Amino acid sequence: VVRIATPWTEADSAPLYLSVLTACGSAIGPGPFMYGGGDRHEAKLWTVVVGGTSHARKGTSWSVTKPIMELVEPDWTNNHVSSGMSSGEGLIQALADMPGDKNLLIVETEFGKVLTVGARGGNTLEDQLRQLWDGSTVNVLNKKKVALSGAYLSVLGHITAEELREKMAAVDIANGFANRILWVYGQRSQLVPDGKRVPDGLLLSVAKEIRQAIHKARKVREMKRNPAATRTWDELYRNIAKTRPPGMLGAVVSRAEAQVLRLSLTFALLDGQKQVLPEHIEA
User: Fold this and answer.
1) Contact 27, 214 (CB under 8 A)
2) Parallel, antiparallel, or unpaired: how do β-strands 46-51 and 182-186 relate?
3) CA 46/CA 91 separation, integer angstroms
């Protein structure tokens, strides 16, 4: 997808790549999972693209990803993508009100607003978000007493580096909100003055492959690594533990093992596999 789209867009390849993976993981939905350290992990990713400047075209990755997903899964794109997080209670209510699967991708092109809202006294948005990254059951003990189970939330956000420095509070780092996010740096990759939507004809073949992989993945339940992947994972796990940076950066990347696990699960599912192989971990 990235190779096909690159000539047509100013979006950086890394944000585009992670945007597509996040969207595909969301479209797969609840079903396939892996255990890591006793915790259950699914293919739900939280990716935030950090633009080096306001001209970094950080939001362009979604502008390219959305039409791709409209070809892959139009029903999911039309009914399971939303935006506008403002409170924990509102988010839980929106998920609870969804008919059928409580599967939602939140796209926040101004993720700085989410950080601003979360910093307000008494706002429970970040508390509820942390619970939704960890699992699928949340209870809100307000007047309505909303109980939500079976939730599957993915997040795709965009923010400038300046906003991130200004609005990311130490509490976001200390309470584990920041380390649940895959932070991806992006900058304008090229100048495309007459940039146009990637022609559907170029994407139809790969969209069909992705659609088939997603439909197959929805039938999968617990995933495990094969013996070779187990050895690869053991070595990588130890290296991550040894090389974790100190201080605030170390806190932000302290869920690196869990992030790699979720990415490897997503890679394996999109590869049409029922086991995680070494190449999925290495990727």
Assistant:
1) yes
2) parallel
3) 15
The neighbouring-strand residues paired with 182 are: 47
Identity of the highest mean pLDDT range in 56-60, 92-96, 181-185: 181-185
Give the amino acid at 270.
L
The model's confidence at residue 195, banded by pLDDT at 50, 70 and 90, is low
The two structure tokens encoding residue 209: 């492959």
Q: Are 138 and 144 in contact (CB under 8 A)?
A: no
Residue 46 has pLDDT above 70, yes or no: yes
Output the 3-class SS for 102-166.
EEEEEEECCHHHHHHHHHCCCCCHHHHHHHHHHCCCEEECCCCCEEECCEEEEEEEEEEHHHHHH
Contact 65, 16 (CB under 8 A): yes
For the CA atoms of the chain, what is the radius of gyration?
18
